[in-house]
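Protein 1 of 2
SEQ + STRUCT:
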Amino acid sequence: MSKTLIFAILVSAAALLGCPGITNAEETKSAMTTETNALPKPEKSGLLPINGLTYYYAIYGKGEPLLLLHGGLGTTDMFAPLLPKLAENRTIIGVDLQGHGRTALGERPFSLEAMGDDMADIVKALGYDKVDVMGYSLGGGVAFRMAVQHPEAVRRLVLVSTGYAADGFYAEMRGQQAQVSAAAADFMKDTPMYKSYMAVAPRPQDFPKLLDALGNFMRQDYDYSADVAKLKMPVMLAYGDSDMYRPEHEIKFYQMLGGGLKDAGWMRENLSQNRLAILPNRTHYDVFFAPELTAAALPFLNGETKVKTWDEVVSETE
């Protein structure tokens, strides 16, 4: 396997899995390491034995609980620029997913369904009956499965850069993604994904195994369209306007949730409970730390639907 091909594979894998892209790594690193974006000290953190794995979790802030799930080859730390704002009036529960960050890969097969079950068990083990959930990319897939499989545990759901089927990706990415494997490990040693993994992983030697697990995962052809209707809780879909998902897939997802099917009406009488946010000038690689994401997600998570009417705006100017 040539180094050129490995590089192409890693770029496409980064796009699918949600880690910062190799080509914009310095921009992302700068955005996530300034003094104002430093990750706050957690109120509580630790390890939980869940279904054969040992998950790392960290809790920040106080208020309504929000489970925050990161993208592939990342950790909760990738939300550092947004976490202070999210934690102002909320309890943020960050979990490092299977094989990521401080959670060891273990010997269990890597699947969204299993991790969806794990998240419900983690929430229960931490003493919460129901939480809001926000997941990005890989974490969005886990959040989707948690909400489908354990709807009683999810109050509101935000899916960031998340699709419902493999055909939602641009076609040219799929072939390269399928080639991700342990063979790429040596070529990744200078990347931020590798360095961040080595800094905190309980078993650094498992990095090639993680790439194999992710490669096997990406080679699967999945379609969860039949499960979308099971999402009865309010759902927000959020994407960059230049995301890795085809725009028609994003719109179809929203329509399957009951949104975008008719005009909302003068009095908003036909307004769906679900929301679609398309953030301008954002891509899959940078949407997860965009301030616009919190500006869109927090009112939704807080159940805020009231907006000023035209009459109210006019009266304020008179």
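Protein 2 of 2
SEQ + STRUCT:
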Amino acid sequence: MRKQRSSPILSLVMILAAAVVGVPFYYIVVNTFKTQRETSASPLAPPTSLYLDNYVRVFENTPILQSFLNTVYVTAVSIVIMLVIGSMAAYAMLLRTNLINRVAGVLLVIAFLVPGQATLIPVYRILVELQLVDSLEGLIMLYTAGSIFCYFLIQGYLRSLPISIFEAARIDGAGPWQIYWRIVLPLIRPILITVGVFQTMWIWNDFITPNVFISSPDKQTLVLQVYKAVGEYSVDWPAFMTLSVIVLIPVVIFFIVMQRHIVNGLLQGSVKG
């Protein structure tokens, strides 16, 4: 009886939550098919006709393909490095004593809590010395700091697995690398996918890091192209929203395809083996 009463309330809450998310998305999409004047006059009204000049103008005047390839390269390489470092660190700490584990955990939490904006100046000076400013490889190096987040989630997942699996492999003569490669990686595949999706969305949508460390037009990411529509005294809103939709389409498709794996990874990690 209680469930029947709470069901309509839950449905109403979910509808309201969907509206909060859906209305801004609707606002952005419909205005990509309008002129600047139509956008200013009636931003929430549907377009009177299928006006595609905004998309044509954006693809003609903006290096979308180059920026897309830059973003894919930085995202893919960064994700691979983060997952490797995070999974190796989580497995290594699982083999250590409780004292070492706790000390390392405290240090990593402190590092994780430091805002990235607070370290921009010293990090910038370090990259200048390494000659990695204004390079995609420098961006990749910066994003590998996300390995800390990967470490925490993967370690929590590893703790849900029975330790007897690793002990049995060790008794059978398997070394640490063999256990990691043949046992740990296959077992933590669900959480690796989950963490990979989270980090992919973070890197793909990140604006501050490439805006600070990238200046060459041929090395800019997709998010920086959106900012080009913002002038000193005015904003080309149709172009701004068109670029926003172009940036969002790949990550929305990616999230829809991977959402089942996200749920599976989080649920399996919450159940003790």
